[in-house]
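Q&A log
Question type: sequence-to-structure
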Amino acid sequence: MTPNLTDYAQTCRTFSWPKAQPPTPWFFQPPTATLKNKIALYWEGENGQTKKFTFGQISDRANQFAHLLKKLGVKKGDRVFFFLPRVSQLYWGLVGSLRIGAVVGTLFAAFGTQALQDRLANSGAKVLVTNKELLPRVKAIKSHLPDLQKIILADDLDREIAKEATAFPDVTLTDADPLCMLYTSATGNTPVSGIVTPRPALRQQMITAQWVLDLHPQDIYWCTADPGWVTGVAYGILAPWALANTLVVFEGRFAPGKWYEIIQKYQVSVLYTAPTAIRLLQDLEKIIKNYDLSALRLVATVGEALTPASFAWIEKYLKVPVLDTYWQTETGAMMICNFLTVPQKPGSMGKPIPGITAVVLDDHFQPVKAGVAGNLAFKPGWPGMMSQIWQNPQLYRSYFSHGWFLTGDRVYCDQQGYFWFSSRKTEIIKTAGERVGTFEVESAIASHPAVLENAVIGKPDPIRGEIIKAFIVLRSDHQPSAKIKTEIQTYVKTHLAGHAYPREIDFVAKLPKTRSGKIVRRMLKAQEMGLPVGDTSTLEE
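Response status: OK
Response body:
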């Protein structure tokens, strides 16, 4: 049972994380007779096609897929990855992978060949599920993936599993076993980090989905995050399905009218989305009156700070409470949030989840006074905390120091215990709610034959939160032009990801560097925003 959060302060004083697994969710065992006929998934494609699946149907397909994996030699601990858009096969395929004890990974469907190769090679994935549209990207890099033994096409998956049994024997799993492996952009000299989330994370995901998202059995729930990222897995599939909630999934791109239509059509009661999407909805607020959104009772946001203006807009036009949440791939579940039972301060991250100890430290690991910005840190040991970074123990250790888990984000905490976001990791850009590593973008740009060197920064943007801006030094045999700018943007979209290209490019004669040759991005950002450039004593000139 999840403790009641009516009294936040009292819960914080008395709550401790359960030492045992919660009641086994249906996706690790057959659903009950009551649950079997409940709708698990309303799916709508980008062209308007619709499907619906009961929990019994999802369970049957998951078991059939587990049998297929077993025939392919997949064992407990093997990595099974999905490189797919939001198609139904991804959802029951993920459950089937968990049932066999595989470590599940998901990859954003917009990834280009290099981004795909980096992640698949690092993970040592044994099986990859993709579709015919994305298959050419996989074929282009297959020779660089010696561990990849089998590519399964989702287009053919219904036919492939048709003759498999709809029951599958239980696999013994413990808290020491991984739940999934999800990739996030690293901040060091490696382009990717495979964050291994332990099985106990599911406890924290389930409890926080009840405390924060206020999920009840009757809720129709829509998490708009793509399952290629952690939110789309943890709170788009695992937590709500563990709680037996009905999911809504829309395969298509964002469109305000379509989103309102889906909320109306499926009677969505809880929406979990990104502040970027809220800002885009704000631009077309005049069409809200055309839809019946009365079923909606709660909106929650994640990915970047929710501005007071967006907070006020939701309350005024959608007429529901809005709760901002803070967590990371590395934390595995929500960490600092707003709650229906706790008064809010618009623009604040909220307060720590009961059972989480959060502090603000200076650069010497000492707590700072209320209202002073510093480094956000957590006391290690919560259930969702990453258990390792795949094949990179040194990077994993770098997150911990002086007894704290360091998030890399700067915040301040006020006198009442509310946390406020200040700034983020200098080498991570959050654009439209997606984390993009500067290293990956710069590497993609640098591989263009016209580029000598480059640096990218995150530039504030009223819609996307940040956009990627690149400063590029061209080779001597190329001249700046609108044509080459477009070529570079298209090149990055193709080789890295459709969301990770520089929307703005400045061609420059040289980049600011230290005497040791390191590019000083803070100087570029300061100049871009008209701010003081700070100490320049370490520059080469």
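Response note: The chain is about 30% helix and 25% strand.
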